[in-house]
């Protein structure tokens, strides 16, 4: 089991790793886009620079074309080609032709432009010539002689070596800047991620340095994004602290309550062992049996109280029918053998559904009935009714359960103290543990309800239990 656990721990996602991956990928994508943009810009800038020289050379040659006695004459200005020869690694080509097609001078096999240029509008294009990519420009010029006129087309080409070298140099310089900026961006990303996660590390260190019993709220200031996390953590620690306090009180009270019956059992057992008279031994054994029964009831109620604490904290509620739970509780609480106590039940025809834990609610009702049977007198009157919106003391619709007996009732001074653990009324019969009403109150309050005790006219105790009702 340890190996899969370690493997699963190794596969867990890391916030730091995730942030670094995404932000690093974003930086690299940005660097790649900048590189592509720089390369496109470098090539366009190199083309603009050399195209300007190419067009100037073509226009200079076009200005030297003349038409004399119907014959084309070209006084080639070699200075125009010398401008292009400033790039020694490139080769330069030219051709001068008439509109009709014959070549006047230059390279007759130059590739023709995609379309004839308009007068004064240079046509720039790329073509493959003699195995190399070459940049061409074509211009046209109308030439008029004394007796005739015609249109001359001048085409000048230059290989792309120099302009590609210029573009590569510009891209290289841009690439150096992009690499430096990318490294700086990645460093800033690393620093930013570290600083962003540092509050989590401080919070983790503070919690790890605490004692296990220290459940105080976290008071450290955290970034706004961690407010909800810290608030949830504080609420959780508050619930855990309350649960621990309840558990400590429960264990202390349970140990105190169990100590007395255990001591009595040991004393009675010792007396029985030291007694030679069979009659006295029998009386001691009967006392032991009564104390053991009392301890058994106490232990059962302690377990019931512990279960109520646990399930009430879980809050795993669902919609349940209170009338059905009432019938189940009556069946479990009323003895099925021997003389049955008189019991009068009145239930409303309206559906009384509540949100809650069916086991806990049935246990609470059963405790109330059991308490009434033990400490009151028959007949026992049980009524289930409903109340509408705004029914006091609850704001919404409620289900009301009343259990009334004909016993001695309760002293006003005991009306609240009997809900405390191990507290019993001054007139209570012997044998009880003082946990029944405490369990009921815990269950009712966990369901958002209330419980009240009052004396009925003519004698007897009335227990009124109110729970929020679910409207269907």
Protein architecture, described:
It is rod-shaped and about 160 Å long. The protein contains nine helices and 14 strands. The strands form three sheets. Strands 8, 9, 10, 11, 12, 13 and 14 form a seven-stranded mixed β-sheet that branches. By secondary structure, it is an alpha+beta fold. The two termini are 48 Å apart. The chain folds into three domains: 14-209, no CATH class; 211-314, Helix Hairpins; 316-472, Heat Shock Protein 90 (2-Layer Sandwich), CATH 3.30.565.10. Helix 5 packs antiparallel against helix 6 and helix 8 (358-375) runs antiparallel to helix 9. A hairpin with a 4-residue loop joins strand 6 and strand 7.
Helices and strands: which structural class?
alpha+beta
Number of helices: 9
Biggest sheet descriptor:
7 strands, mixed
Taken from the alpha-carbon principal axes, the silhouette is rod-shaped
Query: What gyration radius follows from the Cα positions, in whole Å?
Result: 51 Å
Beta-strand content estimate:
15-25%
Write the layout of secondary structure elements.
Elements: H1 2-10, H2 15-63, E1 65-68, E2 71-74, H3 78-84, E3 92-98, E4 103-106, E5 123-129, E6 132-144, E7 149-159, H4 161-208, H5 227-274, H6 278-314, E8 318-321, H7 322-333, E9 343-347, E10 353-356, H8 358-375, E11 380-387, E12 398-404, H9 436-446, E13 450-455, E14 461-470
Helix pairs in contact: 2-3, 2-4, 5-6, 6-9, 7-8, 8-9
